[in-house]
Amino acid sequence: MNLALKDLRVLVVDNSPHMRDLLRSLLAAVGVGIVETADDGGEALGKFKTFPADIILSDWEMEPMTGIEFVQAVRHSVRSPNPFVPIIMVTSHAEADRVFEARDAGIHEYLVKPITAQALLARLSEVINNPRDFMRTSSYFGPVPRRRADLAQARAADLLAMRARAARAEA
Amino acid sequence: MAGRTENPQIVTAPRELAQKFAPVTFKPEDIAAVEQVLERFREQNQSMIVDEVRRLAEAWHEASKEYGADLVKNCVAIAHDLGGYGGTLGFPMVTSLCRSLCRYLRLEREILPSACSVIEAHVSALQVVAAKQIKGDGGAVGRALSAELSHAIEKFEGDRARAAKARA
Q1: Residue A120 touches partner B, C-beta closer than 8 Å
Q2: Which residues have CB under 8 Å from A171's CB, separation 6+?
Q3: Domain extent at residue A110
Q4: Which terminus in chain B has less CB density within 10 A, N or C?
Q5: What are the φ/ψ torsions at residue A13 (nearest 5 degrees)?
Q6: Is residue B9 domain-resident?
Q7: Per the confidence metrics, is the pTM higher than 0.80?
Q8: Is residue A132 within 8 angstroms of chain B, CB to CB?
Q9: How many beta-carbon pairs below 8 A join chains A and B?
């Protein structure tokens, strides 16, 4: 059990009580100490106002408010307590167009059910260890897409290398 | 993603999560602990596949009488969730069957009656998987089920393509 995560607060949103319990148990198994649950996007929005989640795991297919609508509300609503919160979508939808739709809504990570230990832990460590800046356009607010983030990193590395070369040349 | 061609504004996101918890590394014992929870979930929920497949079959039986939007939507919801549980419970065939089934259940209402046989082929295959508790790829039984289903799908898709051609 990872004691470092005992203060991590995770909000699990899934219409299935079995899946909520499973995710709660999986998180507890790696030491996540504080887990709150909700059974649709609407309830999750309500809970998020009083429960300052560090990470949200959200299903897609829920009623009345779907996971995509929930992500959009978190990212865009003026009443959102934290539009930057990392959101991992945990869903049975495996089609590429669904992944793009979720990305366009502003998720950080996408996890296709069935859940495996490696996949879940990889997504958690990714959002904790590699925070991403956000990007705003007329139609999007969410984490900078990974390729763009990689590009920015590459540009920063280029800039540093250029400065180092210039410093060496001056010396 | 519309809007990404315009000049985006980059907003520095807060780093509290990383500051509080990074670097987090999951050790092999963490993975083992998660695997144990998954194994326990499988043991405790063995009957879930049978129960949910029965629920799906009953829901489809009702929906196929009139193809009412809410009844069909209920079938999609059950099949979608079942697909999520299937693999987690050790029944990957349930996941793949449900994914395929959802594609047909989501067809437009006018086409849905013509897809009845292919939908029922999926439900029947799920009933066999649940009754025989077929895990993994199902071996010979799994291959026979897949072949039977492929035949039903090919027939439906062929009929559909011919109908579309005739309309054009």
Answers
A1: yes
A2: none
A3: 3-131
A4: C
A5: -120, 115
A6: no
A7: yes
A8: yes
A9: 149
Whether the CB of A126 is below 8 Å from some CB of chain B: the reply is no
Please give the Cα distance from A81 to B14 (Å, whole number). Answer: 13
What CATH code is carried by the domain that includes residue A27?
3.40.50.2300
Q: Tell how strand A134-136 and strand A141-143 pair up.
A: antiparallel
**What's the domain range around B141?**
48-167
Of A31, A128, A134, the CB nearest to B17: A128
Q: What is the mean pLDDT of each run of 10 residues along chain A (171 residues)?
A: 85 94 96 96 97 98 95 96 97 91 96 93 96 94 77 51 56 58
Helix (H) or strand (E) holding A143: strand A141-143
DSSP A5: G
Q: Which amino acid is at B67?
A: Y
ipTM over 0.95 threshold: no
Q: Is the peptide bond before B23 cis (omega within 30 degrees of 0)?
A: yes
* B18 located within any domain: no
Q: How many whole angstroms separate alpha carbon B141 and alpha carbon B93? A: 11
Closest C-alpha to B145, from B132, B120, B157, B128 = B128
